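Support case: aspartic acid complex. Customer-provided input:
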Amino acid sequence: MKLHAIIKCAACLVLAAALTFAGEGKWTPQQVLQLDPAWLKKEGLQLPVSRLWDPQRGTGLLAAAVNIGGCSAGFVSSTGLILTNHHCLFSLLQEHSRPDRDLITNGFLARTPSEELPGKTTRVTVPRKFTDVTRIIEDTVRVSADDLARSKAIDAKQKSLVAECEKTPGARCRVAVFDGGLQYVLIESFELSDIRLVYAPPRAIGEFGGEIDNWMWPRHTGDFAMARAYKDGKPYQPEFYFPISKSGVKPGDFVMVLGYPGRTVRSLTAGEMADQRDYWFRLRADIYGEWIRILEETTKGDPAATIAVASTLKSLNNAAKNAQGQLAGLQRGRIIEKQAAREDAVISWAAQRPQYAKALAAKKELDGRAAERRKTATRDFLFQAIPNGPLALKHAATLVRLAAERIKPDMQRETDYMDRELPRLRDRLERDQKSFSLKADQAVFASYVNRALKLSPEEHIAAIDQMFSANVEQTVARLYSSTKVTSLDERLKMFCETTEQLRARRDPMLDLAFALEPELRAYQQESKTHDGAVARLRPEWRRAVIAHAGKPVAPDANGTLRVSFAHVKGYAPRDGVIYTPQTTLAGMLEKHTGEEPFNVPAIIRDAAATVNPEQVPLDFLADADTTGGNSGSPTVNGRGELVGLNFDRVWENVANDFGYNPDVARNVNVDIRFFLWLIKDVQKADNLLSELK
Ligand code: ASP
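Agent response - structure generated as follows:
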């Protein structure tokens, strides 16, 4: 891969590696090659760096870490076995659960491959080639005039690069944007779409401690599950996989966490960060919190409805508690204030250097834009929340948009509606039926409408104001009793219909989506204009920040393959308290109350009675730099052997999305020895053990 942005400063990078905090940085595979090998060796890496990533071939052991629907996972056998978190395969479990066969509660084990359970929408992508396309994109941008035109030009170029890339049989490609446009990389992956569930522990183990323990330490959760990837009906044979470590970990050991961190915001200005805090996270905590209460209340005592909303409820809970953790951490760590102080230092430094005049202007404009965007932040949040909100509204909006986009030439459509996306869009429309509960959906929809009706006059959503001017509850009930969008058969017919056909149905939910469409389009146009401005401004400002830092700076997370180098380590969460970094089965038994979410199943308690539970390691902490999306990331030792799986961060570290603090930067891993104990002593799954060797 060409690395022009990095190579420019390669000499200072190697020198400066030692200046970074050991754990800080979600490094791209290409950046790993730029780090000082002696420093990595000193940290604990026992493999040559080229085993992690071979510059000649552009692949390596890092590619055994794969993306599974927004989570991470790792191949652990030559027969396509994949380990990831229980919470990452939760929706696959939910897909196959019924009140009389509740896999969520009881867990699942396939004793033979023929018993494995396919996931309708579960897909794994394995990276195989990275190409720096920054120059190509920048050349496109130069010729475009205003911000909207710039954004559209970048979009069009990305689509054509992706189309070209996907001419390679089996390729699935994307252009990843780093730090708002500082670098663009074309990533060619291949996709495995036949993924089958092999093993998941009972929820009482996979989610032990539930929402009480989520984002907390000490932790005793067995958050793992296993699947198998198939290709052409046969177990997939990965080129790279992680052998399972036999020695485990102890405090101080070196580990690497490999995976696909989703989104961090460290490259934002302090002004933009404040915007994220005051709107994005506050609204998320508040609105998702309300939807959680609604889902719980409306499904209470109804086993089928409880299963239907289980997956949605779980992700809303996770996101809402995360939002609270971000808010608490920002305040406690004074992270935005620290960012502002760092910016002041860059500003004084850049003011002495005329070549950075544009960077200073860019920073000012970014802050100004953030202030401007606050004016419609609540409305924007509601628009962005449609995919996570009531299913009927999400489906209606999708179908109306699909009909409008489908008549355009493929390359002129919005990315989500291009031909390459339609099969998965249809799969999702179908799969969602398993998550639908009429009573719950209707109540969440009413909450959505009530929120929209309370918007200020500058933010109001006209389509909702008009349709719900009278009694909201009654109008919502009427709408749900007459819409056909909630019926799977009808929805699949609608999937193929034109705008005229959809209009002719006179379906009130579709009519609402038609009325919303111009407002949604206008909002998306504003967002594109903003993206175009960011692509113009952010790289200017970041170049000054990085030059001032004089050391390697890992880009913000963007869902691409990264590695973090770390050590097994405890921490001091507050004055007078020190946490040790490892927990055991003994601690799980100690937390057992017999009540959810601290209810250890009898089968585990019986097996525990035959061992010394203090000798069965369960979870451990490390100072890896992780975020959402790193769930399921293989945690490997210096020899590249699997010692655990990342599944969480500690409460004091949730706000590390905004900035790394070495004192509290701890990620939570489940120890592979607990998994081995479970499948050996509890499940007696000899088939799996022998496959894992
Ligand atoms: N538990 C997390 C997730 O949901 C992992 C993290 O954010 O650190 O992805």
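Residues 1-19 have pLDDT under 50 and may be disordered.

Case will auto-close in a few days if no follow-up is received.
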